[in-house]
Design a protein that fits this description.
The protein is an all-alpha fold. It folds into two domains: 193 residues, no CATH class; 119 residues, no CATH class. Helix content is 60%, strand content 0%. Helix 2 packs antiparallel against helix 13. The radius of gyration is 19 Å and the shape is globular. 42% of the residues are buried. This is ADP-ribosyl cyclase/cyclic ADP-ribose hydrolase. It comes from Ceutorhynchus assimilis (cabbage seed weevil). Pfam families: DUF4735.
Length: 326
Amino acid sequence: MSSKETTLVLLLLVFSVQCDQILDFKVITAVRHGIENALNYIESNLYRSMVDVTLGVAFVKAFMKDSYKNGSHIMDPSSLRIMNRCDNVLAKASQFFSTTEENGSDWKFKNLIYNDIWTKSMDYKPKNSLKTKKNPDKISPQIIFYRENYSDHCIFEIVNATNQKDYRQCPVSRSCWDTFYKNAKGNGYFLTHKLLILQIAKARKCIINAYYYKKQVTEICTFIKYDATYYTGSQDEKFDLFLEQILLCGYEGFTDFIRNDWLFRILKSQRDSGCFKDKLLDKNKSRIKRDAVLFEDGCSDHTTTLGAGVLGLYYNYIIKKEFIGM
């Protein structure tokens, strides 16, 4: 057993972790180390990664900014150090992505990452605020793949309609409306992309009806919760998707995605180098994300940045729920 596995076992024994218990704040040490190791790995591999690798870093930065309490909090030195680390990684990333047109790297990095659109005050909802509901929509894998690829086009519509300085109406094409905004039907990455596009529209200051946003986000995360909770085998088979589900629904404050057993699964799956594989099963690997790079160590840039983002979410939750007592 490695020292990392021994540490996790001891944490489990000392803190008597149960799925329905609140996270013990002492676990934050392991979470913090996980974030820092992931950031180190991301920075070391920026030159051969896709631009999406910076999104998780942007989320980590946002979670740290919300955790930081101007020096009055016991964890502020750690929060500030990680926040500054994110700034350094993003500054280095700008050398690779800000002027590269391939895969839309330049406009994605400038408008979705570097402008710090993700920072907000995290407001966590009560546990079990989401119902357990299976999505009745059955969509073929071919259609889902098409719709995933189409998401960049619809995100670009949002970027073109906004300037990040003031709130604006954001015109939506009929095809994007029918594909991503009209309803919460779907599964897999198609469903998380629906959520992400809504979140981008809000973060970029599109004027959105509050009732529509809440209803759509709640319904999407209700279906995602079912998939993440009951398809336990797919948590290993599609670990990358599992992390994306936690990060995006967790960002909306749904504590149904803040679970001790999930946290320890994530910490245990992180390799000593700080990276994450896109799936955890000991079978021949296959790339499950179109915008991902699979490295020779078996890790994925996309999964690693999601892992960093999820650990940042848990860090923020532990501080605000355990230390501050929200």
